[in-house]
Amino acid sequence: MLNQETEQIRSQSIATGIAYAELNEFFGKELMESGYSSMKFLAHEVPLKIIIRVLKTDDLINENRYRLKQITSLVKKRLKKDVTILVEMVKDKGLCPNVQAEYIRKKMSEGLAYRRAVNGALRTIKEAGAQGCIIVVSGKLKGQRARSQKMMWQTNIYSGSPKEEYMRGGKSTVHLKQGVIGIIVKIMLPHDPEGIRGPRREMVDKIRVLDVKG
């Protein structure tokens, strides 16, 4: 009996993960022009609730909400269950790696050099108050040989629980004449006691020097 329950929980977890991956890819393609950032998949709620974070909400929340109804209908057919989709605006685009990766993709598709496109995204990330970032552009950037160009700024974490809390990643691809160029953006969020722009909990290695009492 215990093995059957364990197997059922395992199957549900796998199905939820597959559905999340498929929907995330679907929203990334369909809402590319709206500045798709991320999604929350609340599988434990009835009906199933999905929260989409985009940069431009006017494309989805207009007078008749036709676009949102169309996407909801497609998701219902895929999941074969009742679904409620909510739209949330991205509060700070400079701290959203998917938005910045999409910005670089758009600028490169318009013919701008990749260094200038990356510098524009890096400037926006700095102004937003991020603690650090990593931008990787790979492909046939110059000539026929593919290579990767990696740009880093300030502090970045690669392991441990702070990485899960502070680091956010996004990626995109751009199709040019010389081939496909891959773009990866990772941003280290700032500490925010309110938990809006970044994690509430401070870094584990944060040291405070208190004044000596009397």
Automatic annotation (TrEMBL):
Provenance organism: Trachipleistophora hominis (Microsporidian parasite)
InterPro entries membership: KH_dom-like_a/b (IPR015946), KH_sf_prok-type (IPR009019), Ribosomal_S3_C_sf (IPR036419), Ribosomal_uS3 (IPR057258), Ribosomal_uS3_C (IPR001351)
Q: Which GO terms describe its biological process?
A: cytoplasmic translation; maintenance of translational fidelity; nonfunctional rRNA decay; ribosomal small subunit export from nucleus
Query: What keywords does the record list, in alphabetical order?
Result: Ribonucleoprotein, Ribosomal protein
What this protein is called in its record is 40S ribosomal protein S3
What PANTHER family would the database entry show?
30S/40S RIBOSOMAL PROTEIN S3, SMALL RIBOSOMAL SUBUNIT PROTEIN US3
- Similarity comment: Belongs to the universal ribosomal protein uS3 family.
Quote the cellular component terms of the Gene Ontology held in the record: cytosolic small ribosomal subunit; nucleus; preribosome, small subunit precursor
- GO molecular function, a single term: DNA-(apurinic or apyrimidinic site) endonuclease activity
SUPFAM superfamilies associated with the record: Prokaryotic type KH domain (KH-domain type II), Ribosomal protein S3 C-terminal domain
**Protein's UniProt keywords contain Iron-sulfur:** no
Describe the location of the Small ribosomal subunit protein uS3 C-terminal domain by residue ranges. 104-187
